[in-house]
Write a structure and sequence with these properties.
The protein has 361 residues and is of the alpha+beta class. It has 6 helices and 19 strands. It has one domain: Alpha-Beta Complex (phage-related protein like fold), CATH 3.90.1690. The longest helix is centred in the first third of the chain and has 25 residues.
C-alpha cells in the first residue's frame, strides 16, 4: 500500500510530505503533559523496548573553608539511570472514494485534523497516566491500573464508598488534599468538599520550595489542571490580589487564563484529571474529584517523539489509498488516515512534583 513517502499516482510524495509536516508542526503544541516535561529523551533506534533517563543528583554545598589560597575543593556530580518501557498506540479512520469525491469541504483535510487531535490527546493521556494517579473503584494496588484505564469524563461514575485515589507505590508523586498528604490508597469518601484556591496553590509551591526543588527555565513551577480548577482559582476571594484593579486588559482574556499565580505557571488541559463520583462523598449526593499536577525541574521525563527524520522515531502520520494491489479493495474505494505513537513517561524525582486533589460539584 502506498503512503505519503511513495510516488503513488493518486497521492504524490509532495502532497503526502506536506501533510506529514503539517501534522507534526501542529501536533506538539496541542499537548500539555508532554510539552511541559522538564526532560526529553530521544528513542534510540534498535535499542529494545526501553528508554533510559538520566537523573542528575544535586551538587552538595560546601561547609568548610579552603585549606589554603591555592587549593579548591572538589565537588561531585552523580547521576541515576531510570528505565521506562515504551508504549505503542496506533489509530486510523477510513474515508471512501465516494465521500472524498462528494463531501462538502475538504474531507481529507478534515480527516487529517481530526487524526491530529486524536493523536495529541492519545499521547498526552499516555504521559499523564505514566506519571499520574489512578482514581479507581479498586480495593488493591496493581501497577497495571495506571495504564489503559479510561478515567476521563463519567466513564467510572462509582459510589464514593469504593473509590480510592491510588498513587504509584514506589516512585509516584505524593498526593495532597487540604494541605495534608494522603495515604497511597486514600478513599474518596474521606474527602471534605474543597475547591482549588490561591492559598492551596501557595501551599503546594511551599512544599516544592521546602524540598529545594529548582524551578523550570522560566523561573516558575508548572501547574497543569482541568479548566474547572483554573476557574475555581480565579473565582475564589484570594485571587483578587493577583489582578490589577486599574487594568482592563487582563479581564478581556479568558477568565481561566492566567500566566503566573503564586509562583506557578498555570496550564489548563481538558485531560487534567476530572472524576465524577456519586453518593456518600463530598458532603453532597454527587460531585467531581480533580487531581492537578504541580512540579519543578527534573520531576519527570518523556521520550522525544520529534527525533530524527521529521519525527518518525516516535510519531508517524499516514495517508494511504488502497487499490488493485490489495485483494480486499480491488476497486480502490478506501482512503485511510492514521497515526502511530511510540512514547513513554517516567517520574524521575518524586520529591519534585505533587498532585493536589480538590473537589467541585
Amino acid at each position: 500500500m502506498a503512503d505519503q513517502q511513495s510516488t503513488h499516482a493518486s497521492l504524490s510524495g509532495v502532497v503526502g510530505t506536506w501533510y506529514s509536516k503539517k501534522i507534526l508542526q501542529d501536533f506538539e503544541p496541542k499537548t500539555s503533559f508532554y510539552t511541559s516535561s522538564p526532560i526529553f529523551e530521544p528513542i534510540p533506534m534498535a535499542s529494545g523496548k526501553t528508554v533510559n533517563f538520566d537523573r542528575y543528583r544535586k551538587v552538595s554545598k560546601l561547609f568548610s573553608d579552603d585549606t589554603d589560597e591555592f587549593t579548591a575543593q572538589q565537588m561531585y556530580l552523580s547521576s541515576q539511570s531510570v528505565t521506562a518501557t515504551l508504549h505503542e498506540r496506533n489509530g486510523y479512520i477510513k474515508l471512501s472514494r465516494f465521500v472524498s469525491l462528494t463531501a462538502r469541504g475538504k474531507a481529507l483535510d478534515r480527516a487529517a485534523n481530526k487524526i491530529q487531535e486524536a493523536a495529541a490527546k492519545s499521547l498526552d493521556t499516555m504521559i499523564r497516566n505514566d506519571i499520574g494517579v489512578a482514581i479507581a473503584d479498586k480495593q488493591t494496588y496493581s501497577a497495571g491500573m495506571f495504564n489503559n484505564l479510561n478515567i476521563d469524563g463519567g466513564t467510572l461514575n462509582h459510589s464514593g464508598i469504593g473509590v480510592r485515589v491510588w498513587t504509584r507505590r514506589a516512585d509516584g508523586f505524593p498526593v495532597y488534599h487540604n494541605k495534608t498528604r494522603l495515604a497511597q490508597s486514600a478513599t474518596v469518601v474521606s474527602f471534605a468538599a474543597s475547591g482549588m484556591t490561591v492559598k492551596t496553590l501557595q501551599h503546594g509551591v511551599r512544599v516544592l520550595e521546602g524540598n529545594d526543588i529548582p524551578t523550570l527555565s522560566d523561573g516558575n513551577y508548572r501547574f497543569i489542571c482541568h479548566p474547572d480548577v483554573a476557574y475555581q482559582i480565579t473565582t475564589n476571594a484570594g485571587f483578587k490580589g493577583w489582578v490589577s484593579p486599574t487594568s482592563s486588559e487582563e479581564m478581556k482574556r479568558s477568565p481561566i487564563r492566567r500566566d503566573i499565580v503564586a509562583g506557578a505557571s498555570i496550564m489548563t488541559s481538558t485531560l487534567g484529571y476530572k472524576f465524577p463520583v456519586s453518593g456518600d462523598t463530598l458532603s453532597t449526593s454527587s460531585g467531581n474529584v480533580y487531581c492537578s499536577l504541580l512540579f519543578g525541574d527534573e520531576a519527570y521525563g518523556v521520550s522525544e517523539i520529534s527525533g530524527d527524520s521529521g519525527g518518525r522515531k516516535g510519531f508517524q502520520f499516514f495517508l494511504k489509498q488502497s487499490g488493485d494491489q490489495t485483494t480486499s479493495d480491488p476497486t480502490n474505494k478506501i482512503r485511510t488516515a492514521g497515526f502511530n505513537i511510540t512514547a513513554v513517561g517516567r517520574v524521575l524525582n518524586k520529591s519534585a512534583g505533587l498532585w493536589i486533589v480538590t473537589t467541585g460539584t
